[in-house]
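Lab notebook, bench 4. Still working through the backlog of constructs that have no structural model yet. Next entry is a single chain of 112 residues. Request: give me the structure tokens for it.
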Amino acid sequence: MTAPSRSTYLTSRTGAHLADLAAQVRQVELLIGAHFKHLDMTEADFLTGMQKLDYLHQSLMDISELVRQFGEPDQHARNLSDTVRLESTRRLIEDAGHAAAQHHDAGALDLF
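Model written out:
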């Protein structure tokens, strides 16, 4: 058995950090959701902001999962695209990051 390489260790730590950032974003989403009844739902800026926050959360989760898998190259039982949530992340994988991948998915707003 060989010791994990430095890059594998860094990849693992980076993936864990991204997962922690995603969890923090999710906590903010839940906090805002708890006070949701006090906010004006008709305000377009509020809804747009919440969609951006949700997109950030899901993107961080996707990237965290990709980084985790990069640290385990022999564990690729599934296609990378099948392990992520957002279409924009899939395009990053499949199109090798071409300009088409820069589109942000609005998606459903998940507050609770």
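Notes after review: The first helix runs from residue 6 to 34. Helices lie at 6-34, 44-70, 87-94. Flag for follow-up if needed.
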